[in-house]
Every structure is written in C-alpha cells, then in structure tokens.
Amino acid sequence: MLKARQYIGKYRIEKRLALGGFAAVYRAFDTIEGIRVALKVPHDEHITEDALRTFRNEARLAAKLDHPNVLPIKDASIIDDRFVIASPLGVATLLDRWQKRMTMQKRMDLVQQMLAGVAHAHERKIIHCDIKPENFILFPENRLRLADFGIARIARRTVHGSGSGTVGYMSPDQAMGRPSLRSDVFSLGLLIYRLMTGHLPEWPFEWPLEGHARLKRSTSGDFIVFLQKSIELNPRRRYANAAEMLAEFELIQANALKPGRAKATVRKARNTTRRRRVTPARRRRQRAA
What we know:
6-stranded antiparallel sheet
C-alpha cells in the first residue's frame, strides 16, 4: 500500500479512497498541474505481465470513449515499476450518494446518466462486465460518470469470459462465463431497482421482488415493465444493449414518476432542510418558549 505524503512520480499520495482485490484507488496531488486526481494502482503481488496487460487494456478501452457520463483517463503510464492510471477526482461514488436523502426526480436523472454512459460503451461494442454503484462516480452539479473498464471485454459474436464481475449485480449468464451486452443490461436493471427502492433483487429474481410495493407507489406501470424486461433471466428477453434500454427509458421518462410524486419528494426534502437550519435567533426563541 502507498502511504500519505509518499511520492509516485509527480503524484503525492494524500489518502486511500478504495481498496479492491486487484488494485487500490488513491486521492493524489499532481505537483506539476497543481490539481487533485484519482490514482488507480495495482497491488504489488499482482504486478505480472497478465496484470499489466489488463491495465493496458483498461486504458485503451477508456481512451476510445468520449462521453460526459464516462470517466476519462488523464494519464496511464508505468511509474516506479507500477502501472498507474490517473483520472479526474470525483466527489463520491453512487453508493455513497444514495445513502443520503435524495428526491425521486434526482434518482430518475441519475438513471438517465447511467444508461447514457453504458450505452456509449455498448455502441462501441465494449462490455463493462462490472456494473455496480462503486463504479459510478459523482462530480459537481450531479454529474455521474462510469469508471473502471478493467475487466471489460470487446464484444464479438461469441465472447468467452471467466465469470468475472461483482456478486450481487452479475447476471446468471455472466456468472457462467458468457458475458454479453445483455449482461450489462441485467446489472443496470438491478442497480436501478436498488436505487429506486433501496432493495437489491436476489435469486431467483421472481416478481414481485422485495421493495415492489414502494416502486409501485412512486413509479408508473411502464417504468416497472421497463425494469422487468431489464432483469429477465433469459438474456434473449432483455434489451439487446444499453442503447436500446436508454431509448425505451427516454420514451417513458417524462411520466415515469406518478403524478405529484416528484413535487412531493421535493417538498419533503425542502421541509427537512428547513428543520435542520436552526439559526441562533430561532434557538433563543425555542429556549425562551
């Protein structure tokens, strides 16, 4: 592990942001450009030719993508015998964000951005293979960007995978070593369901899923059908890719929330904010009462 104040090339490590089985992500200061960045660095035990090939592949895949909802790479190079990928530093992950209060309208906006980022990759025949909340990074003004193409695959007519991915968001077909664009669709469906209900669907994915009552209260029937098609166990019954999924979502987006639901969630959030804002004058009045 790299330590705070340690240098790796022009980067000064400030803190570790995340730790995975293959690599760690750090917040670092670029002493040349004078900005903070996120550095992804593989663990020492994984510095092998295969590992370096994986990271080179990630850099090359990301270099092909140019979209507001995809995390760009600032630099990918070997520094002090380590393969380092530098990217813009976000505010938080999607996992961090949805643990705080959020209106349903804002959740719908995040859904649109998720779909747009993955659709851009799918249009270039790139399968992400690891769709999960930790791989969506939030930036100022609620901008969401898809990160980490480390185990992505270039889609061919036949794609032979290894079952790589994150348990919980992985499609059954991907778990059996047959990842495809439809596998990412399944993972997106699970992620969106959890974002909207707070519950992550589990095997055997039979409807009504846990949290369905909440989903039904707040969203339209068309939106629920949209999610059902995304989480179909049979890949052939799902959307063919995220671009098709995005096109369907945009058709129903305007009416995806039930009438009054968006306004109600905004009003509730504002009332909560007002309750939290206790000025000194108000505090004195409360004590006097």
